Amino acid sequence: MKLLIVAVLLVAGSAVVAVVGRRVVRRHRWVRRLELSELGVEAGVAEGRLAAATGEALMQHLEGLRRECSRSAGD
Amino acid sequence: MRIGVDAGRIAHGRGGVASYTRELIRALAAPGVEHEIVLFDLDGGSAFSAAVEESFGSLPQRVRIASDTREELKNLDVFHAPGFAIPAVVGPTLVFTVHDLTVLSHPECHTLANRVRTLASVADALARGATILAVSEATRREAFRLLALPVEKVEVLAPILNPCFSARSDVQADEATARRLGIDNLFVMAVGSLEPRKNLERLLDAWTELPDRLRRTHQLVVVGPDGWQQRSILRRLDGLVQTESVIRAERLRDSELAALYRRARALVFPSLAEGFGLPVAEAMACGAPVVTSKSSSLPEVAGDAAILVDPEDVDAIATAVARVLEDEGLRRDLRERGYERSQSFARDALLPRLLEIYRRAAQRLDV
Question: Does residue A7 lie within any of the structural domains?
């Protein structure tokens, strides 16, 4: 009986770890995606493809969303 | 010109962006267009060729699927990204469609994944110096308000309507479609995926506020796939399907949807925010009177051909629906004006402008 309980707990525990792990990986992937876009925006402004004001607005939105993803990844 | 189009959404997506892409390709494949069209699937996937064949049947020889994505991207004059994917290689001039910016104006109406994907794509396109194509003036104004994007830097071009959205009907076939769905009475339509932004819950509240005589003589037909945060909407909808004359149709082909629009007493589309609002244009083209929101792009799409309501005011929605159902003269007037309005979303009206946008983008001329 004890063995059965331990087995059930182990299975449930690994399922929780898998779900949480997947979630953290996904959020880190989003953070990376947003970081790449931020780099692109910086380059776009530096190379004159993008107006400074638009670049600044985009950076604010991207940084805000990246912080939100980082926060929830660390939950 | 050799024009590349990311057509991946027709295989992997659904809803407004997939419809937009499908009609864009149909228009570019139409007789009279002489450009070479190369279709890409930037998301990758094995179902692409099958989806293209299912959507378009046989295409003219000048329209083909890219055989080698990387190589063919280098040999284009212009690449149109109608969805969210944009090519990694900096080769062709990019035209990028912004369908809406509700991920920024209404973040609470989107999943985090959707916000990341949409914002990153818009940022990438802008950083690449893409020609931005907004689907409405309202979306162009939002791009200025939220991204400080100068209005003169954004082209506005409405989505092209599928020609099957037309008032010309095969009465028997339309009737058979309605019967198959269990519609056996006069009816009102609601169209849109089940998600909070579409505001279906308030519409259901408004429906239950209608006078008994109207609910006895009319059905409410809710057309749309499952969406995000739909649990409470579904619960409410299921309850009404049991007790009221409410019918749900999850997925319909465009031809079936058109058949219902033609028979409907009205389309009610009280969405909280849209970049365009395709159901409004589709219903008008089919001669259905429209009740819609006075917010975002919807007044622009509807023009003077719909009744506009505050989407957060349940009483206002109910009053407008009752007015349309009880006033035959009003319905006739809305039908006529709506049909006229919808002609500006027809392929013939929009295609020349789309090709001109491509030409200017290919020549890197400012908009």
Answer: no
